[in-house]
Design brief:
Pectate Lyase C-like, elongated, two-stranded antiparallel ribbon, about 45% strand, about 230 residues, 16-stranded parallel β-sheet, about 5% helix
Length: about 230
């Protein structure tokens, strides 16, 4: 059951439900590489170089990816279910319109990851650093970013519901056209919003964060601050 936290003024912010993975012992993946529309069930990909491979439309169920290279890997419309990704790395990984459900991503080092139009539900992103994450028009529900660094993430037009940022550095975020509901930003270690500060309705922030955002909010409202 989702937790409910008290927010400023006596309102309630529903907490995100985290994934609860109970993975069976996986078998080592012995294939030559990914295939479009492939079906991968209960497999472990360890230190695999999947760079440039095409797994569009593939399904990963009860899988473990550890230390894999994902440079330019094409996984658009893939389904990643009840799986754990640890120490994955890569630039330009394509997960456009993919579905991630009950997934844990730990200590990832990614850049330019394409998740536009994707669906994320009960996803935990813990540790690591992700640069230029593209989540435009994506749907995020019960998603937690914890102890990670997000540099210029793009949430343009996305729908966020029960999303938490815990000890997470959010730098240069774009919220243009986004719709937020029960989004908890109070735990963010740093909060920088480059665009879309007017879309913060539906989010809860701390008093200190409000003061930090005051110049951006004033600019958005056309208020001139002098003296």
């Amino acid at each position: 059951m989702a937790r409910e936290r008290s927010a400023t003024g006596g309102t309630g912010t529903k907490g995100a439900r985290r994934p609860e993975l109970r993975l069976p012992a996986p078998e080592r993946f012995e294939g030559d590489g990914l295939e479009p529309d492939g079906d991968y069930d209960g497999l472990e990909f360890r230190e695999a170089d999947l760079s440039g491979q095409v797994g569009a439309g593939a399904r990963f169920l009860d899988c473990v990816l550890t230390g894999c290279a994902l440079d330019g890997t094409r996984l658009s419309r893939a389904r990643v279910l009840d799986s754990a990704l640890t120490g994955v790395r890569g630039v330009g990984t394509d997960l456009a319109e993919a579905t991630l459900r009950d997934v844990e991503v730990t200590d990832a080092r990614l850049g330019g990851t394409q998740l536009h139009g994707a669906v994320l539900e009960r996803v935990l992103v813990r540790g690591g650093k992700i640069d230029f994450l593209n989540l435009r028009s994506a749907r995020l529900k019960d998603v937690v970013f914890e102890g990670c660094v997000l540099v210029e993430p793009d949430f343009g037009g996305a729908r966020l519901e029960r999303v938490e940022f815990v000890d997470c550095a959010l730098k240069g975020a774009d919220l243009s056209g986004a719709a937020l509901k029960d989004v908890d930003l109070r735990g963010a270690a740093s909060l920088e919003i480059a665009r879309g500060v007017d879309r913060l309705s539906g989010a809860v922030i701390s008093t200190a964060q409000l003061l930090d955002l005051a110049p951006v909010l004033a600019g958005e409202m056309g208020i001139r601050v002098e003296g």
